[in-house]
């Protein structure tokens, strides 16, 4: 499995946080991410398993990047921080 590069990770996490906020999902996504590593692992594995079907609707490289974010605790923590920051900016 290729690792998510730092410069690409920050850009992807920012785009992901913006997309989540735009859809109004920041609260449920934040709660799911803060539950902890067991859900991160399950989510990552589900993405890898469903990648062939999901790639019909979502580009494969985005699915891979999301799975890699879920595999790295620091990336998940950064995403939660971005979601919380954006949520505070909205209020």
What can be said about this structure in brief?
This protein is mainly alpha-helical and 91 residues long. Helices cover 84% and strands 0% of the residues.
Could you characterize what this model shows?
The termini are far apart. With 91 residues, this protein is mainly alpha-helical. The model has no long low-confidence stretch (mean pLDDT 87). It has five helices and no strands. The chain has helices spanning 6-23, 26-35, 37-54, 60-71, 73-90. It has one domain (6-90).
What are the salient characteristics of this protein?
mainly alpha; 84% helix; 5 helices; 91 residues
Question: Helix and strand layout, with pairings?
Answer:
Layout: H1 6-23, H2 26-35, H3 37-54, H4 60-71, H5 73-90
Helix content: over 70%
Strand content: under 5%
Order of helices and strands: HHHHH
Describe the global form: globular
Mean pLDDT: 87
Q: In terms of quaternary structure, what is this?
A: single chain
Number of strands: 0
Q: Please give the alpha-carbon distance between the first and last residues.
A: 39 Å
Characterize the biggest β-sheet.
none
Using only CA atoms, what is the Rg?
A: 13 Å
Structural class: mainly alpha
